[in-house]
């Protein structure tokens, strides 16, 4: 998928036309359409990336991650393991009760999902905050 294809996909997801995109960011529509055969100027590419809140590397096809701080599959797996260890600790250490009743398997599974989601969000926030600027795109 080339740069123009990615832009078209993002535009479709945002429900805007290429013409509307061009007008919103101050770039000629024909200029954007030429990006299927030529490389865009970095300042123009950055405007498109900012508009869609994605990285320029994503637009250029260098990565499938739309944002530099998105978690990798490995990071998500590591968080899943940590969350499972946490829930096991809760289950083994102290009784986990809801309204005075022992937690059911479904309740524990939902808690695990919530913990995993929160940990993933915290990891993304930390990566966004602490990743050096020269490693972001």
TrEMBL record:
InterPro entries assigned: Cro/C1-type_HTH (IPR001387), Lambda_DNA-bd_dom_sf (IPR010982)
Which segments does the entry list as coiled coil? none
Q: Which domain of life is it from?
A: Bacteria
HTH cro/C1-type domain: from which residue to which, for each copy? Answer: 7-59
Q: Which GO terms describe its molecular function?
A: DNA binding
The record, for CDD domains, names: HTH_XRE
Instruction: Specify the protein name.
Output: Helix-turn-helix transcriptional regulator
Q: Which organism is it from?
A: Enterococcus raffinosus
């Amino acid at each position: 998928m080339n740069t123009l294809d990615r832009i078209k996909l993002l535009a479709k997801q945002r429900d805007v036309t290429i013409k509307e995109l061009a007008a919103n960011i101050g770039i000629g529509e024909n200029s954007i359409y030429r990006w299927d055969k030529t490389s865009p100027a970095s300042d123009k590419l950055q405007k498109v990336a900012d508009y869609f809140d994605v990285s320029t590397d994503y637009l250029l096809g260098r990565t499938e991650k739309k944002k530099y701080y998105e978690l990798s599959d490995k990071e998500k797996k590591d968080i899943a393991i940590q969350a499972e260890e946490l829930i096991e600790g809760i289950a083994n250490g102290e009784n986990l009760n809801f309204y005075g009743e022992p937690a059911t398997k479904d309740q524990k599974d939902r808690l695990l999902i919530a913990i995993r989601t929160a940990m993933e969000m915290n990891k993304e926030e930390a990566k966004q905050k602490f990743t050096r600027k020269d490693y972001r795109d």
